[in-house]
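Collaborator request log, item 7. Partner lab (contact: R.S.) asked for a structural prediction of Reverse transcriptase domain-containing protein to inform their binding assays.
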Amino acid sequence: MTILMGDLNAKIGSDNSGYEEVMGRQGLGKMNENGEMLADFCAFNNMIIGGSVFSHRRMHKATWVSPDHRTENQIDHICIGRKFTRSMQDVRVQRGAHAVSDHHLVLARTKMKLKKSEVKRSTRTEYNVDFLKDRVTTETFRLTVRNKYEALQDLLDEGNMDIDTQWQQIKEMWTSTCSEVLGRKKYQQKDWISTDTLDKVQVRKEKKELLNRPPPQNPPDITPAEEVLQINCERPSKAEIEKAVHHMKRGKASGPDKIPAEAIKAGIETSTEILHDLFGKIWEQEEIPTEWKEGYLVKLPKKGDMQDCKNYRVIMLLSVPGKVLNRVILDRLKTGVDAKLRDHQAGFRKDRSCTDQIATLRIIVEQSMEWDSSLYINCVDYEKAFDSLDRDTLWKLLQHYGIPDKLISLIRNSYEDMACRVIHAGQLTDSFIVKTGVRQGCLLSPFLFLLAIDWIMKKTT
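Returned to partner:
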């Protein structure tokens, strides 16, 4: 709806000859030059002059009175789009309003019935991966992927594609097969305007502020290791990729590329061959596909007031093929770095758990209670731990622990221009850049955070 109103110094008069579609015959005085310009403007923009339509006493039409009260004019107007003519029920002057002005208040009464506006929204797409439990469907899916990959092989062999183009071709191969063989889950459309819609705007704002913390004012002095660890830096082998694919869990939500783990595990031999070629190019160019750098944030309630953003834990839905690459890198890092970590650290380490530490602490507590002795336990809870890590400091820590530059470059590139979108009430917010922290839901994140904690404990104990 378009509404024009103001002090226009336009007298329109009661003669509407030539302007029948723009004004009525209830105006005051005679049309002046400004009045003619207003009428022409309204005609051009399909509007009507409301004060000329409704019949009122003269005192309820005159919007301006001279100081000597001898001259009255109707020079303030409210105009409305012609489409909404029936919505305007009255326009009149309201005398007695206290305002420091020689103009009177002009009121318009409207009655509108708003139509529901259908807008295009970003929603998540999920496929019916349960169909892959059927052997026939799984075999059909595997053969379809194999045939499409063989058709794509000629383009890949030319070697003139960049990383993003090659990934988009591979992504289209998998997603089109999912759409053809599995089909998509159906969701009931919800109203576009609701409290949840308004909440989604607020959630996006809060997450953006939380995930973009300023860097430390006094960054720590971290020296690189004198000797680089003997970690394999060759391109991933098919055996490593196949092992990583086997580690992918079923029943997990897919990332922005919409490729579920079930689609990759449906034909492991073909998937391994596809990813081996893609990972080789990534390894050579040290460049991660742009789409792998975007994540969908899902908020999970912890405790307290659910209206407060701080009372949610957040995980990030990432590309499943990207997770396969991260699994390969993680397996290599763990083998080389494990010997340099403190023995006290049990979490996020191979063949270890915190069970022994918990049992030891429990025995200490029981002994203290039995002997009625004082016991002091210092518990440290890092607020938004994964989100608070400074990345520049993190890259220095990787060098400090002797991780080869090749692997550091790959990890670092995966965080360059990293973007997020928040899932709220089934809808996606606009994308925003994240400049701090490690990704919740990334396989490498616990290991990267572990290095930071290990370094802190070595410095403070």
